[in-house]
Amino acid sequence: MREKIVGEATKLLAVGGRDAVSTRAVATAAGTQAPTIYRLFGDKDGLLAALLDHGFTTYLEAKPPVDPDADPLADLRDGWDLHLDFGLTNPALFALMYGEPRSSPRPAAAEAGIAILRDRVRALAAAGRLAVSEDLAVQMIHAAGSGLVLAMLAIPADQRDPLLSDAMFSALVAAITTDDITPPLDGPVPAANALRAQLSDLNALTPGERHVLDEWLTRITTQ
Hints:
GO molecular function: DNA-binding transcription factor activity; transcription cis-regulatory region binding
InterPro entries: Homeodomain-like_sf, HTH-type_TetR-like_transc_reg, HTH_TetR, Tet_transcr_reg_TetR-rel_C_sf
Keywords: DNA-binding, Transcription, Transcription regulation
Mean pLDDT: 88
Largest sheet: none
Protein name: TetR/AcrR family transcriptional regulator
Order of helices and strands: HHHHHHHHHHH
Pfam family, one: TetR_N
């Protein structure tokens, strides 16, 4: 019954937006009564939280893991395009997921999605291509991608510039990466990022030494 209610609520959200997801409307669509929703979800906020979790889970299922053999920039672009396509295909759900500030922790599926993005950024770092810290790069990519989708959703579909996504991605790549390079790496930040991305494989160091080195490298990348 819980899955059926979430499914019907998702359909109502897609058709009528957040205002269409009332406990009465959802109960009717699911063939049950409002008390069942209160028992399973607590209240409307609990139901919306379940919708939020469902949205991130659906998004995560479509998000492929990092391909270790792929070009890291091409892999990042694939993730960017998937994010855009999901948002434009599911506008109401995307607005619920990314359009509102929240003080509560993100669902586990949302954290898993960020972890995949972090893996893609680490692949860039390991290749010596990252010009900023990994944390800053993750936040910039996440902000730019979600902001792009929300901005495009605010524009009628027939008025959206098809080149906007390409231009945004190019600007983002220029801000967080170095030019194509071959060793030696161009400057301390890409070198520090590349070494930090491979810290877990440095078996010659003790855990304590790796921890200290991580602090030093982080300080270099965030200077």
